[in-house]
Specification:
The complex is a heterodimer of chains A (109) and B (461).
Chain A (H helix, E strand, L loop, with lengths): L1 H8 L3 H21 L3 H26 L3 H31 L13
Helix pairs in contact in A: 2-3, 3-4
Chain B lengths: L1 H18 L3 H21 L17 H19 L4 H5 L3 H20 L3 H19 L6 H32 L4 H10 L6 H18 L7 H8 L2 H26 L4 H24 L4 H21 L3 H32 L10 H4 L1 H15 L5 H15 L3 H27 L13 H19 L2 H4 L3
Classes of the chains: A mainly alpha (109), B mainly alpha (461).
Subunit structure (chain B): NDH-1 is composed of 14 different subunits. Subunits NuoA, H, J, K, L, M, N constitute the membrane sector of the complex.
GO cellular component, one term (chain B): endomembrane system
GO molecular function (chain B): NADH dehydrogenase (quinone) (non-electrogenic) activity; NADH dehydrogenase (ubiquinone) activity; quinone binding
Chain lengths: 109, 461
Amino acid sequence: MDSIIQNIQGIPLNHYLIFCSVIFAIGVIGVLIRRNVIIIMMSIELMLNSVNLLLAAFSAYRGDASGQVFVFFVMALAAAEVAVGLAIVIMVYRNTKSVDIESLSKLRW
Amino acid sequence: MGAIILLSLLGILVLYLGLYNAKSLLLPVSIAGLVGALVFEVLAWNSGAAPIYHGMVLFDNFALAFSILCIVVTALVLLLSQEYFSAISKNVAEYYCLMLFSLTGALMVCAYHNFAMLFVGIEIMSVALYILVGIRKTDFASNEAALKYFLMGAFSTGFLLFGITLLYGATGTFDITGVKNYLVANPTAISPLFYGGILLMMVGLLFKVGAAPFHFWTPDVYDGAPILITTYMSTVVKVASFAGFIKLFSYVFSPLHDFWTPVLLVIIVITLFVGNITALMQTSFKRMLAYSSISHAGYMLFAIIALGANANTSIFTYGVAYSLASVAAFAGLILVKRSHGSDQFVAFDGLAKKNPLLALVITVAMLSLAGIPLTAGFIGKFMLFRTAMADYHIILLVLAVVNAAIGVYYYLRVVVHMYFYPMAEQEEKLAVPMGFQVVLLITLFLTVMIGVYPNYIASLL
């Protein structure tokens, strides 16, 4: 465990910050521009995983375990969310035979 | 804490009742459980507030008041559910169970004292709702609403989490008192991470409360979901999210209010105008209520920029008034839709002749939403505007009053339809089932009572 923390601390904290921000931004852009629901869900996972990575890095730098515990919360709830989300996608697919967002634009103002 | 434990166990119990086909027991057991939870909350009132479970939750009077409101509104919604759920789905027990789980999450959001609890609470509340919104499996609108709600909910959770992470990076703690102590201890050398964290958390929460420019999912989801679920979403979920929002901003981030107040001001103005002007153009009552809920989110954000002891009271009063009026309006909509099969304004034509009581309750609800004196909505708006006035946000106040005036127009449109338009064709009287009568009378009574005697609720918090 100590060697892991040393390894994490071997890289400057700013690098983690920039790296995670870039991954998060890729996730956000993916959600906004992609049209396939499955890929949108993957982009959302990317956002959550960048958060996990950043939490672990902060946690190692501060020598505080609560950040790592939070990672488990995020993982557990992300799994629950994806389970429900995939069920919804399957339900939609059964009705429309498509996983494309554009096929769902009946409700409009 | 007793209420949260009781409600999560109650959800499981209800699920088992459904498994053993005890359908007639579902409603009584759920209501009894909600009353039990209410008793727990009332007993904890004024009983010294210290964070419990290693600083995870804090049941001060603020949290208890909002929890009680959530529980009472859920009970009202469940009373409306008697024939509603069995008409649209075979799996009735799941409705009750998921609603109770969602309520558990709402109570956690009201009482969080640690960002972990805020996140877990919001997720429990939302994940149960994703299922409820899409519960009519073959209905196209319901499918679309569920998918949109899910994608937007998960997307906003990402922002919220990134915000929490940045705050953790700046302060090294998830505890809200710890975060506030960090701000108070070094007012000059606050890490830049902290500012980014505030903005990202704000975006995440604004998505949840449905404020513009993050509102675009609201009308579609409210429109596509079953009416009773829409009632639940636009009352309990909104109130609980606002409880979390105001705790975060007016308690934790209050030392930095010079930074975030301008951002919120812009958002409030956009929200008010978008909500009200789009509501003007609707022909569907349900969709009009969805847009009006956006504008009400704008009014409630008022309390957050006007810091001070009054902010909690005014947002609570507004939440009570708005929830009661919404429940009454949606209950009326369910009855009208049941007899006409339509949720357009035209379906309300001549309702005053068919059922004077129902028309009266809907009228009072509309007046309360519009903020006419002698109703609870007036008191709520008055208190919000007064707190904003005390802070000299004069321009904002003028804009809000203009919006309130726009609101009167579209709220009264349905009243005009009920009283001054002739019935489309000769129909028999509109029957109101027992559960609906109870709910309509309770909401009518409370709305007028709060409007006439506001002191009881104003001195509560």
